[in-house]
From TrEMBL:
GO terms for molecular function: UDP-N-acetylglucosamine 2-epimerase activity. It holds the Pfam family Epimerase_2. Its EC number is 5.1.3.14. It comes from Cytobacillus praedii. CDD domains: GTB_UDP-GlcNAc_2-Epimerase. Residues 25-349 form the UDP-N-acetylglucosamine 2-epimerase domain. Belongs to the UDP-N-acetylglucosamine 2-epimerase family. InterPro entries: UDP_GlcNAc_Epimerase_2_dom, WecB-like. Keywords: Isomerase. Transmembrane segments: none annotated. This is UDP-N-acetylglucosamine 2-epimerase (Non-hydrolyzing).
């Protein structure tokens, strides 16, 4: 059996690492890297650290408006699918790379396997929401991380070949948590003391593409006395420069380049709080039992909201401040599976 996997953006490399490791014990896999993310610290570092097999194809699509970026991927992926004739095409998550892969395969009648299917924010202004709805509706196998994701698909009449196998990001965390303790020196390198700083990540278009939202967010960060560390996403860095907003004005803030996965796990595990708009980081905060504040109006990961393990604030300065300062004592539950999602996926596909 031959699987063609589409990867393109940082979280997809991390999700693919555990799945690929198991998949290759049982079947042939070829990887297409679309080139959506291309800086070494947004791409290569994950292939090296997580021992993800080198892509068989690199499309070099790079950044661009949605139409240009997705369109270029469509044309290039189509050519490869026609040549490779895979049994299945596998996509992860909700990026433009996900949508491009799914659309090409569906039109060529190659069954699509969607990993992290069924997530919904119910906000169609998010490009990710469009990508995941479209992808789910053309997929043949839908691997969901939570019961909520299954329910979301049921509500859209998608019930065939839908499986809750848990979250592949939990597999990745369990596999790498101890390695991170051994190998990462990021606390010393960044001059941080465990449990004495907040970790920040911001990159969602709904936040970064609006100067007022970014001003409100920075205003909140300025009013938080604690040390803050922010591995900054290139999108955010570019947008802040365009807006003329200077992070040097925020007291006690350490801005660093994007870090590798082992350093990120270390920063997360040792943070007092995590302040983010990332999907993956919200979940990792939950896995690590570190309280999270999410600068968004909705989350797809509603399980994390229980007991205020994660608090949604939107971009209101005062709401962000209040949430960061709030003492919470949540009860963390096993709602993201048992860390064996990759094995379950491969098991199900092998039996088809
Ligand atoms: C993309 C995904 C988003 C995901 C995120 C993970 C879409 C629509 N968005 O958002 O769902 O959460 O990846 O990080 O697919 N850039 C660089 N170097 C890079 C990559 C990006 O400088 O290696 C800069 C460019 O200015 C680019 C901008 O970041 O224009 C945005 O990149 P893009 O891949 O379009 O979207 P992300 O915001 O990264
Ligand atoms: N991540 C990382 N280095 C960083 C920031 C994030 O390794 O500097 C990891 C993080 O641990 C998580 C994933 O990237 O596994 C999340 O990706 P991102 O926030 O870019 O996208 P999203 O999950 O929102 O789609």
């Amino acid at each position: 059996m031959k699987i063609l996997t589409i990867l393109g953006a940082r979280p997809q490399f991390i999700k693919a690492a555990p799945v690929s490791r198991v998949l290759r014990k049982h079947m042939e896999e070829k990887i297409i890297h679309t080139g959506q993310h291309y800086d070494a610290n947004m791409s290569d570092i994950f292939f090296e650290e997580l021992h993800i097999p080198k892509p068989d194809y690199h499309l070099g699509v790079g950044s661009g408006n949605h139409g240009k970026q997705t369109g270029e991927m469509l044309a290039k992926i189509e050519e490869i699918v026609l040549n490779e004739q895979p049994d299945y095409l596998m996509v992860y998550g909700d990026t433009n790379s996900t949508l491009a892969g799914a659309l090409v395969a569906a039109k060529l009648h190659v069954p699509v396997i969607h990993i992290e299917a069924g997530l919904r924010s119910f906000n169609k202004k998010m490009p990710e929401e469009i990508n995941r709805i479209m992808t789910d509706h053309v997929s043949e196998y839908l691997f969901c991380p939570t019961d909520t994701a299954i329910e979301n698909l049921t509500n859209e009449n998608i019930t065939h070949n839908v499986f809750n196998i848990g979250d592949v990001m939990y597999d990745a965390v369990l596999y790498n948590r101890e390695l991170a303790k051994e190998k990462s020196n990021i606390l010393a390198e960044a001059g941080l003391t465990a449990k004495d700083y907040h970790l920040i990540t911001i990159h969602r278009a709904e936040n970064t593409d609006d100067i007022e939202n970014m001003k409100n967010i920075l205003d909140a960060f300025s009013k938080i006395d604690e040390v803050k560390v922010w591995p900054i996403h290139p999108r955010t860095k570019h947008k802040l420069a365009d807006y003329g907003l200077n992070l040097g004005d925020v007291p006690n803030l350490k801005v660093i380049d994007p870090v590798g996965y082992l350093d990120m796990l270390t920063l997360e595990a040792n943070a007092k709080k995590i302040v983010t708009d990332s999907g993956g980081v919200q979940k990792e905060a939950y896995f690590m039992k570190v309280p999270c504040v999410t600068i968004r109006e909705q989350t797809e990961w509603v399980e994390t909201l229980s007991g205020e393990a994660n608090i949604l604030t939107g971009t209101d300065t005062e709401k962000i401040l209040a949430a960061v300062q709030k003492e919470v004592n949540p009860e963390y539950k096993e709602v993201f599976g048992d860390g064996q999602a990759s094995e379950k996926i491969v098991d199900i596909i092998s039996k088809k």
